[in-house]
Design a protein that fits this description.
Elements lengths: L2 H10 L15 E3 L6 E7 L4 H15 L1 E2 L2 E2 H4 E7 L8 H4 L1
Parallel strand pairs: 2-5
Antiparallel strand pairs: 1-5, 3-4
Length: 93
Amino acid sequence: MNKAAFALFATVYGLNNNVPVYGAYPGWTDGLGKTGISVEIYFDLLCSDSQEQNPIWNQVLASPWLDGTVADQVFWHYTPYPLPYHIHAFQVS
């Protein structure tokens, strides 16, 4: 296959997609981390299972622990993790 044919094939079939490559941590951190404990949470924004667990996590964060709430005592690192079988999950993340 010559170069022109390959370039046309790559354009038509999406081989030169525009996938961003992160230069830094792709998520965000929340909490005060008074105890030095870090918890990494991976989630998919389009996943129904992730959405169903959100009220439970909010309840965990608000529950009392030591001198405050769990949210005050722990560093929470949230990382979007698009699953390949959720359509458009990467673009949303």
